[in-house]
Write a structure and sequence with these properties.
Blueprint: E1 3-5, H1 17-29, E2 35-46, E3 49-55, H2 60-64, E4 72-76, E5 84-87, H3 92-98, E6 100-106, H4 112-117, E7 124-127, E8 148-154, H5 158-167, E9 176-183, H6 195-200, E10 204-209, E11 219-220, H7 223-229, E12 240-245, H8 248-260, E13 268-271
Parallel strand pairs: 8-9, 8-12, 9-10, 10-11, 12-13
Antiparallel strand pairs: 1-5, 2-3, 2-7, 3-6, 4-5, 4-7
Helix pairs in contact: 7-8
Length: 272
């Protein structure tokens, strides 16, 4: 899942009289409400990426607090002091119907995320409340007025984009919805099994590989370069909405490009 912040790993020190006071102080100053929940799925999604599903069926209030794609939460694993900040990959309706949150987690050596990806089904983690405002799709509604929506994602930044697409934002009622999704190669690209489903909902998926294998015949290089090469970039700037998630340089370059073309910065929904 998309990692919003990657704090350094800090394991708890063995308990002693010397650290009794500091540990108590940490507890007193942590006002976060933590909810224990078991892992129901840990499996490979792509190279260095993992599908993580967490059972929250015993925490209906937590499930109900997730209302918008792009929202995130903090997750703690056993024996690690600092949490990871993770965007929720599954749509809000999935949490309500299935009692689970799904994540796409990038395993980074030495991080909390690496430990999380090494846990087993049934092991317990702790979740904070859902945080953030998420993607305010009302800014690019109704579909009749914003017929073009351009979506850009790189790496694990596809996580909240999955939630957006599967929540439904009227893609089938818009004439031009494109997802430019960048990864190093196909081995690093998650959710390929969902591309047909997303296409059927009205989203044209454009995979972009920066280091493709010899047999690749699709778009190459970086997402911003692939978009710049597109024959049809923006036909009507006033009817265009944009969603950006992932690598900051990509987002900044795409933003500059689209603003120069006349697209309003107010119609760009960002999560990076």
């Amino acid at each position: 899942m998309f990692i919003l912040r990657r704090p350094h790993l800090t394991r708890h020190l063995p308990f002693s009289r010397n650290n009794r006071v500091s540990s108590a102080a940490a507890v007193r100053h942590d006002a976060t409400l933590w909810t224990p929940a078991p892992l129901s799925l840990v499996e490979s999604a792509a190279e260095s990426l993992f599908h993580i599903s967490i059972d929250i069926s015993n925490s209906p209030d937590l499930a109900a607090s997730y209302t918008r794609p792009g929202q995130y939460l903090q997750l703690r694993v056993p024996d690690v002091e600092r949490p990871s900040f993770l965007a929720i990959a599954s749509p809000p309706s999935f949490a309500a119907a299935s009692g689970a949150f799904e994540f796409l987690v990038k395993s980074i050596a030495g991080s909390t995320a690496e430990i999380l990806c090494g846990l087993k089904r049934g092991e317990t983690v702790e979740l904070s409340s859902v945080m953030g405002n998420g993607f305010d799709v009302d800014q690019i509604d109704p579909p009749e007025e914003y017929s073009t929506v351009l979506i850009f994602a790189t790496g694990s930044g596809i996580s909240p984009i999955r939630s957006l697409i599967e929540t439904g934002f009227g893609a089938d009622r818009r004439s031009d919805v494109r997802l430019y999704y960048g990864a190093r190669n196909l081995k690093r690209m998650a959710y390929q099994e969902k591309f047909k489903e997303w296409e059927s909902s009205g989203v044209k998926v454009v995979p972009v590989l920066s280091q493709p294998d010899d047999g690749w015949r699709g778009e190459t290089g970086y997402v911003q370069a692939a978009f710049a090469r597109a024959a049809k970039q923006v036909s009507d700037p006033s009817a265009t909405g944009v969603v950006l998630c992932g690598q900051r340089q990509m987002a900044e370059e795409i933003t500059a490009m689209l603003v120069a073309d006349g697209v309003s910065n107010d119609k760009m929904l960002k999560n990076f």
